[in-house]
Amino acid sequence: MNTLYITGAGVSAASGIPTFRGEEGFWTIGSKNYTPMEMATRAMYQNNPREFLAWYYNRFATYRNHGPNDVHHWLSDKNLITQNIDGLDGKAGNKNYIAIHGRLDQMTLFHEQGEAVEPLMTPWDSVDESRLHDSLFELFNIQNQTPELNHSFKPFVLLFDEFYTELYRITQAQQRMLNADKIVFMGTSFSVNITQMALEIARTYNIPIEVVDPNPVHILHPNVSYKKMTALEYIQKF
């Protein structure tokens, strides 16, 4: 059976990374002046890169050295699309997973969306926290307080006011959904576009789905089963 696994932040919780919408989640904790939904935008990066990069570094990059947990290792040979940017599936050994929202350990040239660019490794260890803002500007090649197209860099992460492009392997992701005999959602709140896309394909082609979550969201689909448990509990059944 060709099972496609689509994972969300709940899968990385056991690695010590806060879930996005939990009490300590990234989207519930903003900056002093902005909500998370305002911070995580291309517009904020363009207009206030100083605050954007400091927020991104403090909310995400500080978790860059966390390791994969048993769920990531179990998924290491599976057909996988993850919403997580933490890169833990790669650390666990999955060679062909799709990081549909980007990767924390990478950056790209700051480009017009849709243009062909290649992700580059982000040298986070070069950041000097004693002069955080200046150091981040140096890392992302920002001069004159504003990122410059085709000159500066941008974290390889899909922001709220951006859209899925081939940089994020969207066509491959859709093809994996279409080819699946079953889709298993693990640790996701179904609040982002990629899960809605997968649900629409599952409904259209009558692909059975499974929802793994201690408090699963009810899904409108004629062929769905709910596993009211954590991802760690789920994999122990195999």
From TrEMBL:
Q: What is its EC number?
A: 2.3.1.286
What's the domain of life for this entry?
Answer: Bacteria
EC primary class: transferase
Record carries keyword tRNA processing:
no
Q: SUPFAM superfamilies given for it?
A: DHS-like NAD/FAD-binding domain
Please name the GO terms that the record assigns under molecular function: NAD-dependent protein lysine deacetylase activity
| This protein's record includes keyword Electron transport | no
- Domain Deacetylase sirtuin-type spans what residues? 1-238
Give the record's keywords alphabetically. Answer: Acyltransferase, NAD, Transferase
The record's section on Pfam families has:
SIR2 (PF02146)
Classification via PANTHER family: NAD-DEPENDENT PROTEIN DEACYLASE SIRTUIN-5, MITOCHONDRIAL-RELATED (PTHR11085:SF10)
Q: What is the official name of this protein in its record?
A: protein acetyllysine N-acetyltransferase
Give the organism the record lists: Pseudoalteromonas marina
The organism's taxonomy opens as: Bacteria, Pseudomonadati, Pseudomonadota, Gammaproteobacteria, Alteromonadales
